[in-house]
Amino acid sequence: MYNVDAYLKSLTSNAVKLSKKVQDGIVENTRDLRFENQAHFLDTNEDKMREIRKNLDSRYEKEKLDGLKRLIAMISKGRDVSEFFPDVVKNVASNSLEVRKLVYIYILRYAEQEQDLALLSINTFQKDLSDKNQLIRAMALRVMSGIRVPVISPIVMLGIKKCVTDLSPYVRKIAAHAIPKCYQLDPAQKDALIDIISTMLGDNSTFTIGSVLMAFNQVCPDRLDLIHPQYRKLCKMLVDMDEWGQITAMDLLLRYSRTQFLNPIGKSTAQPAPRAKKEKSVVKSFYSDDDSDVSHHSSDSESDSSEEENNSVDPDLAYLLKCALPLLQSRNSQVVLSVAKLYMHLAPAEDSYKIGRPLVRLLRTHREIQYVVLNNIVAIASQRPYIFDQFYQHFFVRSTDPVFIRNLKLDILTLIATESNITFILRELQEYVKSSNKGFVTQAIEAIGHCASNIPEMAESCLGGLLKLSYSKSDSVAAQSVVAIRRLLQQRPGDSVFMITQLTKALDEISEPLARANIFWLVGQYSSQLPTVAPDVLRKAAKSFTAESESSKLQILTLGGKLVALEGTASKTVSLLFQYVLNMARYDLDYGVRDRARFLRALVYGKQKVASVTVDQDSDENDHENGQQESDSTEQDPQIDEGGFEYSEKELNLSDHIKAILLSEKAAPVQENPSHGREQYKVGSMSLVLNRVVAGYEALPEWPKVQPDPSVRRLAATMEAPGYMNDRTGFGSDSAYAKSRQGQDSGAAGGKGRYDGQAGAYRGAETLDKFLESSDEETSSDEEDDSEEESSDEEEASDEDEEEMSEEESGSGEEDDDDEDEENEEEASSSEEEAILPPKRANGRRG
Q1: Distance of CA 89 to the CA centre of its chain
Q2: What is the DSSP string of 213-282?
Q3: Disordered: where is this region (predicted)?
Q4: Quick one: which of 104, 168, 609, 797 could link to 143 by a disulfide (CB 3.0–4.6 Å)?
């Protein structure tokens, strides 16, 4: 019994000790995972500062990590911690990856201030370029290229050259990122960097090519000759690149296409052709993929459109558009805008309808993205409104839309209004007029006027609706309605009599100065068609002249002058009313009204002298000195007092031309869209959003007038990328070299109809049509070849095993197998004379 109790006590004590150790271990290991424990790194008192140096000199990686975290926290707070640079540099060769990352961040921050100490770590970075871990190799080159010390530019160049041939696509990607940094550090290295870029353009890894194109745009954007042999490969790889690589590639291919192909936009058909295409697909659902393909048309229309496209569009350009089309379904809005940019600036008009639905889809995102997309849609719709006319419902204003989104949607609705959708758009605009937001109501009324101007068939109904709005109790609504009516009447003079009569009836109820001034202008302009209405309007205006606004007084004076010029002295009533208005305006407080009255008095009554004008006594002498020739009858006396008029017998009498001056026809005002001018910028650019040129904007190059040589893009058929560039994977293992594609040698020996997947070109292809047809058949043919090769390899392997068993020495059998492999490789290389073989590794295998 005693032994059992002792055993239980010892077991209990051991369990307590074990649980305590486990708890301490868990607390120690999870200390960094608790958010409350991260705050102590921001503590910058003197005791903590002394602990940092102690932690950096510690032999434990965890203490070094704590010290580095505290330094990075101080850097984030803006504190200068460059005094710890020597202590940090000593840890650059640490075995901990986390410690190295923080050390690299610190070195990048203070390398320019401590250049001498930063050079101490260069040897470590050079050693890390040969590390087994691809992360270490990439980080070493990234930090070494980020140290902006001009002395190390040759070392950075050597590191780039070494990493360009690395087996890991991730390391090659970092090497491409280091090229612009090296160019900024030492521009004299430009020629060598261009050679490196030319080599890296042959990389078949989609993980790397985007960074290479970015380096190309920053170092040598004008060297488009380097793109010639890689054009078709870039088009094919476009769909597999990362999102930002796709944006860079499409921008580069756009510039390339504008300089290497003739303009296909001018060869396109008129707008009704794409409109007819869309009418057949209107019944499709919004998420239907049929709109992005021409499969929903009949076979006859397909053949006709394909023949027409082949006649007007270069095959290489059509291939680019075909490869970019799937990217319209990308989740990245900028990728979709880049594809829209290609179709707007490269594709014929009948193909641009494909970008309508994807752009409308982007309106379901955040409002910041909506604003950018809507600005681009405004620019596109101003040139090709038929792209979006079937999606008018998606541009209806919502109650939650901010002002900048609302105004853009109204602009788009006025641009895409057609005979088929104008009824629905006007019905929606009428609902907007009922809003309590006066600014929104004003914009809606202006949009109704724009729609009526664009579609004359709906002008009559729009005038009726605007006339009802002119009776609104809201002054802003009434004023904007009258302004819209005036613009429409100038475009449709035949409807002026009835509409002006109705407006004059509402003149007593309208109090807005802008609306009253426009009504007075309309009555005076069309007074010849209103012989009974116009004098009565002048009579009412004369009664309330003193209570009118400045703009209304000016129009009343003009109205009286027009009536006197029209009827002359035959109507004493009109003449007396006009003189009464002139006398009232003579003593008005506003100088503009007084000047207008003096001008009209002198113009209407001719040679009469204004009573308030006093002429200088020396005017005759000044006239004789300034101009002795009196034959110029149109020259006025420069010494007459300001505001006075005096006409001599030899001068032109303007009263004889008063009708031509006051009653001439006025041109209809041009309603300029607030977004006017955006169409001159590239789609997807910041300059288009801001409607002005911003720093860094590059206009599109002009189309060539003569077709450049298309054979330069066929050079890729005689080239192959090196073996280390044939790995199409991304961030992967670096334990072995990238394997060559199976069946390459057998395919090359099979004839000139073989498609080379590594070089991205069709061997022996005369036209792009054969090139495209062969790419579709590639998968099935490769599978058959692979299956045949596998079976043949198994038979050969079994024969070789039997031969080896029959021989006495296994070493001699292995030597014979090696000889046979070398002979097979020599035969394959001789059958493909044009190909450039990848370098051999030490074990005799191809890269």
Answers
A1: 43
A2: HHHHHHH-TT-GGGGGGGHHHHHHHGGGS-HHHHHHHHHHHHHHHHHHS--SSTTS--THHHHHHHHHTT
A3: 287-312, 614-641, 723-847
A4: 104
CA dist 740 and 821 (Å) reads 16
Q: What is the pLDDT of residues 285-329, one digit of tens each?
A: 444 544 444 333 334 444 444 444 444 788 999 999 999 999 999
As beta bridge partners, residue 762 has 755
Q: Contacts from 371-375 at CB under 8 Å and sequence distance 24+?
A: 371/404, 371/405, 371/408, 371/689, 372/333, 372/337, 372/689, 373/333, 373/337, 374/405, 374/408, 374/409, 374/412, 375/408, 375/675, 375/678, 375/688, 375/689
Q: How far is CA 649 from CA 139, 607, 646, in A?
A: 94, 9, 10
Which 8-state DSSP code applies to residue 682? Answer: P
DSSP reduced 3-state for 113: coil
Helix (H/G/I), strand (E/B), else coil: 556: helix
The alpha carbon torsion through 378, 382, 388, 389 (nearest 10 deg) reads 130
Q: Which residue from 182, 258, 176, 174 is spatially nearest to 224, judged by alpha carbons?
A: 258
**Count of other CB atoms within 10 angstroms of residue 78:** 6
DSSP string covering 370-419, please? HHHHHHHHHHHHHH-GGGTGGGGGGGSPPTT--HHHHHHHHHHHHHS--T
SS3 at position 755: strand
Alpha-carbon distance 523 to 541, whole Å? 12
User: Would you tell me the crossing angle of helices 243-260 and 315-324 to the nearest 10 degrees?
Assistant: 160
List, for residues 461-513, the tens digit of each pLDDT value: 888 888 888 888 888 888 888 888 888 888 877 777 888 888 888 888 888 88
Q: Are 361 and 272 in contact (CB under 8 A)?
A: no
Say if residues 149 and 157 touch (Cβ distance below 8 Å). Answer: no
Q: How far is CA 818 from CA 429, 500, 575, 696, 831, in A?
A: 83, 102, 119, 59, 20
Structure token digits, residue 776: 């579709």
Distance of alpha carbon 21 from alpha carbon 13, whole angstroms: 12
Full DSSP string of 327-347: GGG-S-HHHHHHHHHHHHHTS
- This prediction has a pTM of 0.70
DSSP H helical ranges for 455-590: 459-469, 475-491, 496-505, 513-525, 533-543, 550-567, 572-586
